[in-house]
TrEMBL record:
Residues 725-734 have a biased composition (Low complexity). Keywords: Calmodulin-binding, Carbohydrate metabolism, Cell membrane, Glycogen metabolism, Lipoprotein, Membrane, Prenylation. It comes from Vanessa tameamea. PANTHER family: PHOSPHORYLASE B KINASE REGULATORY SUBUNIT (PTHR10749), PHOSPHORYLASE B KINASE REGULATORY SUBUNIT ALPHA-RELATED (PTHR10749:SF7). This is Phosphorylase b kinase regulatory subunit.
Length: 1239
């Protein structure tokens, strides 16, 4: 016997343990581990965790190899790891077709299998017989492959295998938006086989993507072709979604102990130390017991009350498992490793003792970790009453190798045989350490000398594109095309990267290719796509958002980010560089922009400090010429050297002909064709503006129009009625013929159709008699009019009419360069002109008619959905469509158009006037802005579950109508004419609830400005071309009553945004426990929801919210929410034991209203002028004959109650509390005393 140091003896002991418990079970042919002696299935995840102890031990031996024997042991242990990793690789490579298919479909049946036969490595169950889609298992494989390769093991042998691994990276790229079955293979916890988005899968995928990036799979012996490439943005998306989910695991699991593997070893996927602590503490407090942690709340697996004869649970039976869920010692092993990595010896010792207490000692003295501890059947009732009081019994496999392996790692670390850095050679554990500030490098290039000189006037020195040679500048779409060549392999039938998305992190690197260097402009500045890039102010704000995003998200990358921007002719506004651009560029010179450090310079100077990636995968690898560019790439790059953007038609540029009164009359008859398509519905009754047209028309250029009557600017309605038409268009640019006199006594508006009581849909006004006039009109006369009119709006109306009657492809009979010109061609020209003149209403409408797509609409919707927000599109109350899962671009657009389709009215059904293109475009635009905000300011969306875009549009129009004091129709015109930047600004003000005012910036475009002052200036500040709108605003001093309407507005906004108080849904859950149901709008929230769902579960919150959303008026919805809050206080302070039967929440609100009106009558308050009038009974609420309130309050509740603050003697909470007290007084037996402690 050789002499052995103590450490050597101890290691020999661990080697025997590892041999006996783990290596003895490894299959000699495939290298895989069967699940148990009686079950030869090998799960990917379990196999990977099993081998970790072997890998750890091999590194421990390597360090003390004082004899040849130890070196041999090291090698033997290492090769066992290689054997297993290659066994899994071979099993997955047999399913290469699935990897290829899954990249496109992301369908559960196309996923790689989660388990294989340990004897043959082939599949053991069919695609649809198991929840195979488990992204965390594939991600764990890639993560451990990366760590083992970095520690010096050679696992991948050939370039074909490298290509397969590269495609596995694409397979997990979409983890952030792919619902899967997760770490417990069951998806939704009812186990009905419904996949869901799991935080543990997303976290593991993020870790794998970061670990694989720029990793050479051949280790130190490799070259450029064995390197794996990952687009940094994919990991960043996972990171963002993970941050928004934790500590929640999924929709049905509010918490899961499996998250321990994400916040600590092996993934280390979270880089916010507070979130790590919060997640760990929540798991320990809610799931930890004496024998380990529960997997998640109400987990029925192996509990005595589970019915073993069926796989799934009934929703109502989940309640039975509360407090008797099995406890898994496995999670003590995770916590032990976590404390090892933190260097926290106190907690490490404590958990090691806890674990060793519950381990089972076998005859040979080796301690084993059992799979789980369950409550015995006869003790379940007692355990439920007093959790943690009963002894539990071990069930399942013993030893549970997954846990045993982690336990051995923990012991090796605790006893000092391993250092944490050896288990984590890629240093993932350091991701939550504080990093130095990122400096964002910014390069501005001019398209040509002319633009360079214009920038020079502002003291901005830039280079032109030709001056930065040999560096080449390309748009982002070129980079996205180049990345499609990554991972292609003919032998394996793999086609490379499918996703076309390259984010800002990817375009902020420089790329080297052979001897060339490329810089790419950001994707959201690709001009060809979309009108939002035509608004310089929006571009500037997008740019600053990009800089801030880079400042936060640029991690784990060598070098600084570089944003390359191109100043093109295209950005010029009437030959000038827009001020928004200049001010932003000047800010850049200061070195800081919005708190992010920036440095402005030339590309050449930044070469040494930038992050540079080598595009080595573009070589002709498979043809055997790795150093020669792929011929397809070569030709693509030659084609795509920057082209200029000038292709314009000149059809509409004709000299204006002389106009006749007859032609004018005809033109008037087509006018308003666009306006007829509108579907934004601002309820004019609640705005109290019925039938009164105040406010000037947008965009009136000619003074002769503004001077007609000093008291009020003329309403275009009048002009319209003279010519029997249906509504004017947005931007009538100067119709100055003397034949139209405008007078106040013009004919009253046509009577409204009956049947539309309150919500006067805008279009009802526009049903007209002039149908016959169009029909007689010859198409060629219209086209002649089209040529002679100067007004873009009239051109728009004529084209809208032509599209409605003849379709887009109709040949107009004109010719341009020998080709026939279709209506579509004319629309394109009009779109270009409207863009250059910044007539945004027309731009949105023509963009919609041309079917232009909003940049990345599908991506925007996905960004919102994966952060657990549902979206509805279409106009409430009857036409909303909910989007709950990511959809492809074309389906989304179709859904948005369908949801805004107008119902046909009366004799209107001969021809519906097309869909509401403008609002459809606006919906898409708002979705993009909402996604921008949720990426950069997620705190705006706290306590909001569903974003109802239609309602948000209506509230935006209402807000404009309030601020501009104009009627609903005009407000929606103003809304559609806001520039994209102002639209985004208005949306931001509404989301954040800031007060705002509106300034005019010439040509009828408005700008939204925050009210910084503490006095709420409700009056708008619109001034049109030097003429005051409401006389002169400045004269009237702003007095206190101006604050009127503030709380009504607040409630309206919160109701429209579905915002609720903190922990609202958990509290409603507690109320449901104490009554037999809550009734809202005739819909019942049943108490059995609490049987099925836990209080913090997202599914429960959505169930409550769906019922609340059936209330059409947002301010009324908010009062109902307040009433529910009062009920929750009754329950929380245990004022009563039970609330009795079902509670109709609206009754509480109406009761509160009644008490409010009685109070008002008593102290003769403001409400005596409307609802509390003499003779108007409290019940009637001062309703007129039509049943509407005089004051315009929604749902029969006085407007003044809506406008009361929540607190105070006359506050809404006071009245609601009195209403609840009245309810309890009716329900409780008279002799029972009520606890009434005054707080």
């Amino acid at each position: 016997m050789r002499t052995r140091s103590n450490s050597g003896v101890r290691l020999d002991y661990y080697q025997r343990v590892v041999h006996k418990l783990i290596l003895d079970h490894q299959q000699p042919v495939t290298g895989l581990f069967p699940a148990s002696p009686h079950n030869d299935h090998a799960w990917i995840r379990d196999n990977l965790y099993c081998i970790l102890a072997v890998w750890g031990l091999s590194m421990a031996f390597k360090k003390i190899a004082d004899q040849d024997e130890d070196r041999a042991k090291t090698y033997e242990l290492e090769q066992s790891c290689v054997k297993l990793m290659r066994g899994l690789l071979m099993a997955m490579m047999q399913q290469k077709d699935k990897v290829e298919k899954f990249k496109s479909t992301q369908h559960p049946h196309d996923s790689l299998h989660a388990k294989y036969s340990s004897i043959t490595g082939r599949i053991v169950v069919k695609d649809n017989e198991w929840g195979h889609l488990q992204i965390d298992a594939i991600s764990l494989y890639l993560l451990i492959l990366a760590q083992m390769t970095a520690s010096g093991l050679q696992i991948v042998f050939s370039l074909d295998e490298v290509a397969f691994i590269q495609n596995l990276v694409f397979y997990i790229e979409s983890a952030y938006c792919t619902p899967d079955y997760g770490i417990w293979e069951r998806g939704d916890k009812t186990n009905h086989g419904l996949p869901e988005l799991n935080a543990s899968s997303i976290g593991m995928a993020k870790a794998a993507l970061e670990a694989m990036n720029e990793l050479d799979l051949f280790g130190a012996r490799g070259g450029p072709s064995s390197v794996i490439h990952v687009l940094a943005d994919e990991a960043q998306k996972c990171q963002a979604v993970l941050q928004s989910m934790l500590p929640r695991e999924s929709n049905s699991k509010e918490l899961d102990s499996g998250l321990l593997s994400i916040i600590s070893y092996p993934a280390f996927a979270v880089d916010d130390p507070q979130l790590i602590t919060k997640t760990r503490d929540t798991i320990v407090s809610k799931l930890q017991g004496k024998y380990g942690c529960k997997r998640f709340l109400r987990d029925g697996h192996r509990t005595p009350r589970e019915d073993p004869s069926r796989l799934y649970y009934e929703p109502w039976e989940l309640r039975m498992f509360e407090n008797i869920e099995c406890e898994w010692p496995l999670f003590f092993c995770y916590l032990i490793l976590d404390y090892c990595f933190q260097g926290d010896k106190v907690n490490l010792t404590e958990y090691m003792q806890k674990l060793e207490k519950i381990m089972i000692r076998k005859d040979d003295g080796i301690k084993l970790v059992p799979e789980l501890y369950s409550v015995p059947g006869d003790k379940a009732h007692l355990e439920q009453i007093e959790p943690g009081s009963q002894e539990r019994i071990p069930l399942g496999r013993c030893p549970f190798i997954w846990a045993q392996s982690l336990y051995i790692l923990g012991k090796l670390l605790q006893e000092g045989f391993l250092a944490v850095g050896e288990l984590d050679p890629l240093n993932r554990r350091l991701c939550s350490e504080k990093k130095p500030d990122v400096v964002v490098q910014i390069v501005i290039l001019a398209e040509d000398n002319e633009i360079r000189d214009k920038l020079l006037e502002y003291d901005l020195h830039v280079q032109t594109i030709s001056e930065v040679a040999p560096i080449e500048v390309q748009p982002a779409r070129v980079l996205s095309h180049l990345y499609t060549y990554l991972g292609r392999n003919k032998k394996l039938g793999l086609s490379g990267r499918k996703s076309r998305d390259v984010g800002i992190l990817s375009t902020s690197k420089l790329y080297s290719l052979n001897e060339r260097i490329f810089a790419f402009t950001p994707q959201n500045f690709d001009y060809e796509e979309y009108y939002m890039t035509r608004d310089p102010a929006l571009l500037a704000s997008t740019f600053t958002a990009n800089v801030a995003f880079l400042g936060m998200s640029w991690k784990q990358m060598l070098g600084r980010p570089t944003i390359t921007l191109l100043a093109t002719q295209y950005l010029l506004d009437q030959g000038k560089i827009p001020m928004a651009m200049i001010t932003t560029m000047k800010k850049l010179k200061s070195g800081y922009i919005n708190g992010t450090r920036v440095t402005l310079g030339n590309l050449g100077d930044f070469l040494s400090t930038s992050a540079i990636t080598n595009l080595s995968f573009l070589g002709s690898q498979e043809e055997g010429y790795p150093d020669k560019l792929n011929p397809q790439v070569q030709s693509y790059l030659e084609e795509h050297l920057l082209r200029s953007f000038s292709s314009r038609l000149s059809v509409l540029a004709r000299p204006p002909a002389v106009r006749h009164a007859r032609a004018l009359r005809r033109r008037m008859s087509v006018r308003g064709a666009i306006k007829k398509t509108r579907s934004i519905n601002v309820d004019s009754d609640t705005l109290g503006m019925e039938g009164e047209y105040v406010g000037s028309h947008l965009l009136e250029r000619k003074p002769s129009w503004l001077e007609v009557e000093p008291g009020r600017s003329p309403s275009p309605e009048d002009a319209k009625k003279r010519a029997f038409t249906k509504g004017t268009s947005t931007t009538s640019l100067g119709i100055t013929t003397p034949t139209i006199e405008i007078s106040k006594e013009s004919t009253p508006p046509p009577p409204k159709e009956e049947g539309t009581v309150k919500n006067v849909l805008l279009r009802n006004r526009t049903i007209s008699e002039s149908q016959n006039i169009y029909a007689e009109q010859e198409t060629d006369e219209l086209i002649a009019m089209l040529r002679e009119t100067e007004s873009l709006d009239e051109q728009g109306d004529i084209l809208q009419y032509l599209v409605d009657t003849h379709g887009l492809e109709f040949n107009t009979g004109m010719q341009e360069n020998g080709k026939h010109v279709t209506v579509k061609d004319l629309l394109k020209v009009l779109y270009e002109k409207a863009c250059s003149q910044k007539l945004w209403g027309l731009v949105r409408h023509t963009a919609g008619m041309l079917g232009k797509r909003v940049e990345d609409l599908a991506k925007a919707v996905t960004d919102l959905l994966v952060r657990q927000k549902q979206i509805t599109v279409g106009m409430p109350p009857n036409n909303e469509h909910t989007i709950i899962a990511p959809l492809p671009e074309n389906e989304l657009r179709q859904l948005i158009h369908v949801s805004l389709r107008r119902e046909k009215h009366g004799n209107d059904d001969k021809k519906a006037y097309g869909d509401d293109e403008s609002t459809a475009m606006l919906t898409q635009e708002l979705l993009v802005y909402l996604a921008m905000f949720i990426r950069t300011e997620p705190q705006l969306f706290l306590e909001m579950l569903r974003l109802r875009v239609g309602l948000i549009i209506q509230v935006m129009a209402t807000e404009l109508s309030r601020t501009l004091s104009c009627d609903g129709e005009e407000a929606s015109e103003h809304l559609l004419n806001l520039s994209p930047f102002e639209m985004k600004n208005l949306l931001h003000h509404i989301l954040s609830g800031k007060e705002f005012a509106i300034n005019s910036v010439g040509r009828g475009n408005f700008s939204i400005v925050s009210n910084k002052s503490n006095r709420y200036t409700k009056k708008s500040q619109i001034l049109l071309e030097g003429q005051g709108l409401q006389g002169t605003i400045d004269e009237a001093p702003i007095t206190e009553p101006d604050r009127q309407g503030q709380w009504l507005r607040r409630r309206r906004l919160d109701g429209a945004l579905n915002r609720v108080p903190r922990d609202f849904y958990q509290r409603v859950w507690a109320v449901l426990e104490k009554c037999q149901g809550l009734v809202i709008q005739g819909k019942v929230l049943q108490p059995n929801l609490t049987q099925e769902m836990t209080s913090g579960e997202l599914k429960f919150a959505l169930a409550v919210e769906t019922v609340l959303n059936s209330i059409p008026q947002p301010e009324y919805r908010q009062l109902v929410v307040e009433a529910l809050m009062v009920l929750t206080l009754v329950v929380e302070y245990k004022a009563v034991n039970h609330l009795g039967g079902t509670i109709t929440v609206e009754h509480l609100v109406h009761k509160a209203n009644q008490i409010f009106l009685e109070d008002q009558t008593r102290c003769s308050g403001d409400a005596t002028l409307c609802c509390a009038k003499e003779g108007a009974g409290a019940g009637a609420g001062g309703a007129g004959a039509a049943g509407a309130l005089v004051c315009g309050g929604a749902a029969g509740v006085c407007q003044l109650l809506y406008d009361s603050a929540p607190s105070g003697r006359f506050g809404t909470m006071t009245y609601l509390a009195r209403a609840v007290a009245a309810l309890l007084a009716e329900r409780l037996p008279a002799h029972e005393p009520v606890e009434c402690a005054i707080t």
